[in-house]
Amino acid sequence: AWPAQGSSLLRTTCGTPNYVAPEVLSHKGYNGALADTWSCGVILYVLLAGYLPFDEVDLTTLYGKVESAEYSFPAWFSGGAKSLIRRILDPNPETRIRIEEIRNDEWFQKNYEPVKEIENEEVNLDDVNAAFDDPEDDTEDAFEDEAGPLTLNAFDLIILSQGLNLAALFDRRQDYDKLQNRFLSRNPAKVILSSMEVVAQPMGFKTHIRNYKMRVEGLNTDKTSHLSVMVEVFEVAPSIFMVELQRAAGDTSEYNTFVNNYRSKLDDIIWKFPTEKGKSRIPRLWKSHS
Q1: Would you say 286 and 184 are in contact if contact means Cβ atoms under 8 Å apart?
Q2: By the 8 A CB rule, do 157 and 43 touch?
Q3: Which of 203, 208, 194, 222 is nearest to 261 (CA)?
Q4: Which of 147, 141, 271 is nearest to 194 (CA)?
Q5: What residues in the chain have per-residue pLDDT under 50?
Q6: What is the pLDDT of residue 262?
Q7: CA 265 to CA 191: how far, in whole Å?
Q8: Is residue 65 a contact partner of residue 56, using CB atoms and an 8 Å limit?
Q9: How far apart are the first and last CA of the chain?
Q10: What pTM does this model have?
Q11: Sign, CA torsion 282/285/287/290
Q12: Pairing of β 226-237 and β 213-219
């Protein structure tokens, strides 16, 4: 977005509609930092709830709910989380909470560990292998970390938000495949990975589980190239887990084919969301490829 000439306010309307702040929709100019703070609040809601706070089938209704901040909380949201999200999703940018205030919020401070920003980090398949390959793997418990899976901290995103195009994190066009490769489950983390392992092996893939991560690898359907997929379980709320699949190696189309086939066999562990008036509240975010 670019500021209008002679003004510090931005004028360009951009971003995924579900994540855009009300003032961006008004076409009267907006403060980029405050608009990004709103987007952070939407992202936090999605991470905790598993679906969007504002999600309608037509843009007119969607924009109306965004502009009036009309949304509701799932039953499992804590009081602290609700309070902070209300202050972030304030339709008035002048009274909306600032980043520094978020950092000092009591709910945010609980179990918070600052993110260490690493520049120019190169990630390759050797790093993936190193995370799993260990001489003692055969004797160690695959779930040696009894503390449980990593708890997802949405504010890791907020701390790095300055200058970051937050809408792109969940942009349906740029990151569509990423979003289709996530799902929520209410099964225990160990049960999730064990079930996914049982499904993957008859499909001809080898699995390696360690500390709530699983590597699934084997040949593609034509048996001409290697496919490697990383699976990780995150806790997003008490007894609610997000499972994320990422391609580590192999052809993208083969990976998408694998994920579609794989997910179709995981109905027993995928949490089916409640519907409202006959339609899912999150069809685009969590529904697998058709």
Answers
A1: yes
A2: yes
A3: 203
A4: 141
A5: 1-6, 135-140, 155-179, 275-290
A6: 92
A7: 15
A8: yes
A9: 34
A10: 0.44
A11: positive
A12: antiparallel
Out of 3.40.630.30, 1.10.340.30, 3.30.310.80, 3.40.190.170, select the CATH number for domain 123-153+167-290. Answer: 3.30.310.80
Q: Is-contact 289 255, C-beta < 8 A?
A: no
- Length of the chain in residues, anyone? 290
Is it true that domain 1-114 has CATH number 1.10.510.10?
yes
The ranges assigned to domains in the chain are 1-114, 123-153+167-290
What is the distance between the alpha carbons of residues 17 and 172, in angstroms, rounded to a whole number? Answer: 10
**What are the distances in angstroms from CA 244 to CA 40, 65, 180, 214, 228?**
20, 29, 9, 10, 14
Spatial contact of 74 and 240, defined as CB atoms under 8 Å apart: no
Token reading at 159: 């701390």
Q: Which two tokens stand for residue 224?
A: 């001409």
Beta bridge partners of 217: 206, 228
Instruction: Determine the Cα angle at 278 with ends 272 and 281, to 5°.
Output: 55
On whether the CB atoms of residues 185 and 271 are closer than 8 A, the answer is yes
User: What tokens were used for 87?
Assistant: 């202050």
Residue 136 burial (C-beta neighbours within 10 Å; 0-12, 13-18, 19+): exposed
Tell me how far CA of residue 281 lies from CA of 10, 49, 52, 223, in angstroms: 31, 11, 7, 39
Give the amino acid at 255.
Y
The residue type at 199: V
Q: Mind giving me the DSSP string for 28-89?
A: S-B-HHHHHHHHHHHHHHHHHHSS-SS--SSHHHHHHHHHTT-----TT--HHHHHHHHHHT
List, in sequence order, every beta strand (DSSP E) within 112-167.
150-151
Query: What are the CA-CA distances from residue 139 to residues 142, 148, 186, 193, 230 (Å)?
Result: 9, 20, 29, 19, 22
Give pLDDT, residue 27: 77
